[in-house]
């Protein structure tokens, strides 16, 4: 894998990350499908990937470290997506992350009661599908493909370094 190919793959990861976030916000804000708490957590790796790929342009000497960080980001993304997929398929029980809202921000019991009346989206409920796949399933596949690609880049990094 030459330097051109490595930079192209990093740009593709940047584009995929942008598209993933834009799509998630479009589905939420325009189409009106509310995400569960795990869906919101699954967005974090894409934001981190954008920051890391852009920072790679400024810190070329740390490129190998940035690629290693990207690998860890997409391992996290895959694991969270796999866990969420398991909840959707009834392989795992929902955890507290799936049913809790932020209860640390309440100044009074009236605010707490008001928050408890708001319906929390269950992590089991798939409210949006693309080609029959939940967004979690698609995220799991994308994360795995990016992870494998980054491992190949890291494995061959010294071989093609200039």
Give the mean pLDDT: 83
What is the number of helices?
A: 8
Q: Which class of secondary structure composition applies to the elements?
A: mainly alpha
Spell the H/E element sequence.
Answer: HHHHHHEEHH
Q: Tell me the name of the CATH class.
A: Mainly Alpha
Beta strand %: under 5%
Which second-level CATH architecture applies?
Up-down Bundle
How many domains, in number, for the residues?
1
The major beta sheet can be summarized as:
2 strands, antiparallel
Helix content: 55-70%
Shape: elongated
Low-confidence stretches: none
Rg on CA atoms, Å: 19 Å
Strand order of the largest sheet: 1-2
Record field, number of beta strands? 2
The separation of the N and C termini measures: 12 Å
Q: CATH topology, which one?
A: Bromodomain-like
Question: What can you tell me about this protein's structure?
Answer:
There is one protein chain. This protein has a single domain (3-160), classed as Up-down Bundle (Bromodomain-like). It contains eight helices and two strands. It has helices at residues 3-29, 37-41, 44-58, 63-88, 96-99, 109-117, 135-155, 157-160; strands at residues 129-130, 133-134. A two-stranded antiparallel sheet has the order 1-2. Strand 1 and strand 2 (133-134) form a beta hairpin. Helix 1 packs antiparallel against helix 3 (44-58).
